[in-house]
Amino acid sequence: MQKLIVVAFAALCLIGTSSLALAEEAMKGEMGNMKDEMKAENDAMKGDMKVNKEEMKGKTKEQGKAKGKTKDQKKTKGKSKQHKEKTKTHKDTAKAAPAAPAPMSAPAPAAAP
Known about the structure:
Elements: H1 2-67, H2 71-96
């Protein structure tokens, strides 16, 4: 009776470990397939992004050629030049004529001891 129990227990242990090994191999195979699918999807997405970028570049070039500079852009360019000239003159005047030191008031008289 004890021999049968030992044999049955040994058989269960062997079956359990072999089933775990088989399950692990199956999982590895599935994981490999999933990784391949993900790589294929990523590659497809990258290709789509490149196509979209090229289309957008083409559209912006066409729009830039067709439009040219607007009046507002020309005005702001002129204003920025004027602003640069003003700041430059302010800097030059600040460097050329340093500010006079502030006059000091007379020191307070010391109290007699």
